[in-house]
Amino acid sequence: MSVHEDDYDSAGGGDDDVSPVASSHAASSKGSAAYGAPEENEDERDVGWDQMALTEINEEVFEELVLDSNIVREVQSVWQAFQQAAGSRDAAGEAMYTSVFEAAPSLQKLFKTPRAVMAMRFMNGINQMVDAIGDPPRLKVTVETLGFQHLDFEVTVPRVAVFRDAILDLLQVELGARFTDWAQRGFASLLNYAGGAYSYIRVKYTGRIHILASSWRLAPGKT
Fold first, then answer.
1. Considering the entire predicted model, what is its pTM?
2. Which pLDDT tens digit goes with each residue over 154-166?
3. Is residue 176 within 8 Å of residue 64, measured between CB atoms?
């Protein structure tokens, strides 16, 4: 989930630009993930799913994301399986690009970067987050860095939900039963976390950066 500020036109429309997703993973208007707790069995009954997954896109705070070690391992394992199933990183990135923009065709007009480059940036962004998912401080720094690359992009809860659901649907289609409940919860949590963080960072820092830029232009001897 990674783009750079020169990849898109920042004057894109609001939430009306996002097409509804015909998906079993559709989110609520508040961005809640559609996943309930997995069906119980003897190994999972005492896990406490409500405490193990980030089920909403939270724009209000940006803290460390701590997930159960079983979810971490499954997310990383499934991510490797997805890349292997796609045949290459390039093919995996192209599949993600196609899935996202089929879910929200109107978003395509916001991006100026060539398709192949954009697809690889999606791939690299998610790969960085998956790689860091088991290390909360490192994950927070990774997401924060990616978030600053999205400052000029209007990241909204509906857009994050579309992106998240498109990725989850793709993994389900490509991997079938291999995309387990653990992996679903983990990927939903990770994408909710990143999307909420991007929005939080944009709201918190964009205004300050614009003020600094304006002050710099007004400083004596500066143009």
1. 0.71
2. 788 888 998 899 9
3. no
